[in-house]
């Protein structure tokens, strides 16, 4: 009798377990159906890769919301929480049908147009569908990273073409101010402030974001100047990201960027780390001093050319470095410049452009170095802010 009771209890337990399992499986099945239906209502930017940057499949325009653009790509799913979706018609009307009269720039990934949208001045970058990877990269960065010295993204559109809408920075870019026609010469104090602003923007994406971002195309043309002569870093289409605490990308990354600003380890091997941006920033510092392009030709017709890094190293290695520098200083500065300050900025640029990336300072150190050269800088405890003792001695005049 007890034996039969035991068998009955066992059978009941088994039956109960089977029923419970079926219930759990049913619940999971229902959840998956619900989840898939919910995801189907969200717009998807489909597969993109380093070797294929075409937008595949379809994008349901009537279901894209300002809150979500999600999809598989080398850049993780994008949550657009601080930008606005615009319609193609609205952008077209604001630019008079993307007219030549509204065109204010041309970049590697598309044209830029001036517009007034919803009471705000804006710059609209119109990108080809083939530039999907760059579009995703820039959207990813600028919807998650917000800083005074980074250009602000207002919104986007994915009808007919790919569009990114930025705040309009009315005073052009640094390259135009240094070498363009019709611009007032930048004072030495203004140049130091522009360098400091740009450095702060880079420091932010290198050290204060999760994940860490690497711009990969720092140059004077990508530093915008506002009406108060304050600088903002722009053009994040080539940006790479690393994991929290990471310092470099895998070796062999596809090399993109601008010749003259690339460090040796990146140009030769595709090695990417924040020190790639530090090197390029050092070249920008040389531009601020000389107003010369990153690559200087001997004559207009000559194919012989030298980089600014080489020219400034020659000057610093001359018997009298200050006199050597005077041959490179922007003539627009006239005689109104502090040669000691120029020498220090040159030495900072040299540290930034060291061939060995390990010898280059972080952007945090560069920011503090520039603070000491700025007329508005306060007294800082240099030893607490620098991790590079050589840079401490350099900027302290020791």
Automatic annotation (TrEMBL):
Amino acids binding ATP: 126
UniProt entry keywords in alphabetical sequence: ATP-binding, Cell membrane, Chitin-binding, Disulfide bond, Glycoprotein, Kinase, Membrane, Nucleotide-binding, Receptor, Serine/threonine-protein kinase, Signal, Transferase, Transmembrane, Transmembrane helix
One BP term from GO: innate immune response
Subcellular location: Cell membrane
Pfam family name, one: PK_Tyr_Ser-Thr
EC number: 2.7.11.1
Enzyme class: transferase
Bilayer topology annotation: Single-pass membrane protein
UniProt domain Protein kinase: residue ranges: 98-373
One GO CC term on file: plasma membrane
Transmembrane segments: 12-34
Single GO molecular function: protein serine/threonine kinase activity
Catalytic activity: L-threonyl-[protein] + ATP = O-phospho-L-threonyl-[protein] + ADP + H(+); L-seryl-[protein] + ATP = O-phospho-L-seryl-[protein] + ADP + H(+)
CDD domains (alphabetical): STKc_IRAK (cd14066)
SMART domains: S_TKc (SM00220)
Assigned protein family: Belongs to the protein kinase superfamily.
UniProt protein name: non-specific serine/threonine protein kinase
Naturally occurring in which organism (per UniProt): Oryza glaberrima (African rice)
């Amino acid at each position: 009798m007890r034996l039969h009771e035991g068998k009955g209890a066992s059978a009941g337990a088994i039956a109960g377990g089977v029923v419970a399992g079926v219930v759990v499986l049913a619940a999971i099945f229902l959840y998956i159906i619900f989840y898939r239906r919910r995801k189907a209502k969200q717009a998807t930017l489909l597969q993109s890769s380093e070797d294929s940057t075409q937008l595949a499949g379809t994008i349901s325009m009537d279901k894209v919301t300002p809150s979500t653009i999600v999809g598989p790509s080398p850049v993780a799913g994008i949550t657009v929480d601080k930008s606005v979706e615009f319609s193609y018609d609205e952008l077209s009307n604001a630019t008079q049908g993307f007219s030549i009269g509204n065109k204010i720039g041309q970049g590697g990934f598309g044209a830029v147009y001036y517009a007034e949208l919803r009471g705000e001045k804006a710059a609209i970058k119109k990108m080809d569908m083939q530039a999907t990877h760059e579009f995703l990269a820039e959207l990813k960065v600028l919807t998650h990273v917000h800083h005074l010295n980074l250009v602000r993204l207002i919104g986007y559109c994915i009808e007919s073409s790919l569009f990114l809408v930025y705040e309009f920075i009315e005073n052009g870019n640094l390259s135009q101010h240094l070498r363009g026609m019709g611009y007032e010469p930048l004072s030495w104090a203004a140049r130091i402030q522009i360098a400091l602003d740009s450095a702060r923007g880079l420091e932010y994406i290198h050290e204060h974001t999760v994940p860490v971002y690497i711009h990969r195309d720092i140059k004077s043309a990508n530093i915008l100047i506002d009406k108060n002569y304050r600088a903002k870093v722009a053009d994040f289409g080539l940006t790479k990201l690393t994991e929290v605490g990471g310092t470099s990308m895998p070796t062999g990354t596809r090399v993109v960027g601008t010749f003259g600003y690339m460090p040796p380890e990146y140009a030769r091997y595709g090695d990417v780390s924040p020190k790639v941006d530090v090197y390029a920033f050092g070249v920008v510092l040389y531009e601020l001093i000389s107003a010369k392009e990153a690559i200087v030709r001997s004559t207009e017709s000559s194919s012989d050319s030298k980089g600014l890094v080489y020219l400034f190293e020659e000057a610093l290695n001359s018997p009298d470095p200050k006199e050597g520098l005077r041959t490179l200083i922007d003539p627009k500065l006239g005689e109104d410049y502090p040669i000691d300050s120029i020498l220090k900025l040159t030495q900072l640029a040299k540290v930034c452009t060291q061939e060995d990336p390990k010898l280059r300072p972080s952007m945090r150190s560069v920011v503090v170095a520039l603070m000491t050269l700025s007329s508005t800088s306060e007294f800082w405890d240099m030893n607490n802010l620098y991790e590079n003792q050589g840079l401490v001695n350099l900027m302290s005049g020791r």
